[in-house]
Write a structure and sequence with these properties.
Blueprint lengths: L1 H5 L3 H23 L5 H31 L9 H31 L6 E3 L3 E3 L9 H31 L18 H22 L52 E5 L4 E8 L2 E7 L2 E7 L8 E7 L3 E2 L3 H8 L11 E12 L2 E10 L2 E14 L2 E11 L19 E12 L1
Antiparallel strand pairs: 1-2, 3-6, 3-13, 4-5, 4-13, 5-8, 6-7, 7-9, 9-10, 10-11, 11-12, 12-13
Helix pairs in contact: 2-3, 2-6, 3-4, 4-5
Length: about 425
């Protein structure tokens, strides 16, 4: 027992330094969340919640060790002992209350997002009413600043003991480095590790900014497409026409590759409890080979980054990215492909398939096309039956709340390669 009174136990040392690194990482990530690009915000928030619950578990374990396992006695004058004790207990309060307040926020939000800890373990919502949400938001915001202040006080006290050479800090170091001069090196390394953890939390997701690919259409700022319900022609309505000479009597135009120009839009429209929802996808790419004179060899492939969804409400967007809707963590992209394109009236129909949320279903897309030399303008509509793809599970599966049919619209320009 004497050895334990002179030094902290091995489990206390391990939990102490693990919590120090996790707290600094979490603090940096928490302050950076609001400035992250939309493409990484959902994943970052999920990771923030996962780290928070890990901190809660480690903090409760550390508190249990403090109460059960003998530890070195406090040293110094009475005022310093009282200050150190106050800082320690305040840190325990922050480490436990911070994750709990975050858990309450998630559980009482207007739109309840599912949480998978580190993408694996589902975290249930707490059985609390919405009245808890605003107080928890306030407490969670204040805790960030309180944690930063307490952390500085704790480090300042540790450095004071180190500079006074009373070796108290060595009691919280592994036995192999708790001797001078190795102790000084260990102190510097520990502080450097904490700073690195803070910076890692601040910058972990910043490298994934939303930079469109050269061929990627980017919707005009503030534009939200209005979508009318799309026609759903039967694939058997008309056979694919045979290539025919152009009306002008000139030679038929062969199939060409087309590069989509910036400035296009890909949007959707639905209704939630009577409220119209207009959304769009900011990032998508198209691989198009087309000729009105050779529809038999024309083909279209569209890839959509589902994490780029935007509907004018951040919480709703996070819900759309979650497990109940697009499940972007496991199915980040949707893909439409069509190798059968036919003329219909003044436009065309691409009879293709849509792969969404791990399900592939047939889907016709009606579109109009104006070709002027090497430049083309395209616009069209489609209807997605979301329930056939498993989009909108649980409470969202009721078509009285959200209609099964979701209207899709697109508009873009393209140039022949």
């Amino acid at each position: 027992m004497a050895g334990l009174r002179e030094r902290y136990s091995g489990i206390a040392i391990l939990l102490h330094w693990a919590l120090a690194l996790l707290l600094l990482f979490q603090l940096g990530l928490g302050w950076a969340l609001e400035d992250l690009p939309r493409s990484t915000m959902f994943v970052a928030f999920q990771f923030h919640k996962s780290v928070g619950i890990l901190i809660l578990v480690f903090s409760l374990a550390r508190l249990l060790v403090r109460l059960v396992v003998p530890r070195p006695p406090a040293e110094g004058t009475l005022p310093l002992k009282l200050l150190a004790g106050a800082v320690h207990w305040a840190l325990y309060g922050v480490m436990i209350l911070g994750p709990l307040s975050g858990w309450i926020i998630v559980s009482t939000a207007r739109v309840k997002l599912p949480t998978l800890l580190f993408g694996t373990i589902p975290l249930p919502h707490l059985p609390l009413g919405s009245a808890w949400n605003q107080p928890a938001e306030t407490i969670h915001g204040l805790i960030g600043w309180l944690l930063a202040g307490l952390f500085l006080l704790h480090v300042a006290g540790a450095l004071r003991h180190h500079l006074l050479r009373d070796d108290l800090i060595g009691r919280m170091m592994p036995a192999g480095v708790a001797r001078r001069p190795a102790l000084s090196i260990a102190v510097v390394a520990a502080l450097a590790g904490c700073v690195a953890a803070f910076l890692a939390g601040s910058w972990r997701y910043r490298g994934h900014a939303e930079v469109p690919a050269p061929s990627q259409p980017v919707p005009a700022s503030g534009s939200t497409p209005e979508v009318a319900p799309a026609p759903t022609p039967s694939p058997a309505a008309s056979p694919a026409p045979s290539p025919s000479p152009s009306p002008s009597g000139t030679a038929a135009v062969p199939v060409r590759s087309w590069k989509v120009a910036p400035g296009g839009s890909l949007g959707f429209r639905t209704v939630y409890s009577g409220e119209a929802i207009n959304g769009r996808f900011a990032r998508w790419t198209a691989d198009i080979r087309f000729s009105p004179d050779d529809l038999a060899h024309s083909k279209i492939a569209i890839d959509i980054d589902l994490a780029s969804v935007s509907s004018g409400d951040g919480e709703r967007d996070d819900t759309l990215k979650g497990e109940d809707f697009f499940s972007v963590a496991t199915q980040p992209r949707a893909r439409f492909t069509a190798t059968r394109i036919r003329k219909q009236g003044s436009g065309y129909v691409a009879d293709g398939t849509l792969a969404l949320a791990g399900v592939t279903r047939p889907m016709p897309v009606a579109f109009k096309l104006i070709i002027d030399g090497d430049h083309a303008q395209a616009s069209g509509t489609a209807t997605v039956k979301r329930l056939a793809f498993g989009v909108g599970k649980g409470q969202w599966s009721d078509p009285q709340t959200i209609p099964d049919a979701v209207a899709i619209t697109f508009r873009f320009a393209a140039d022949a390669k």
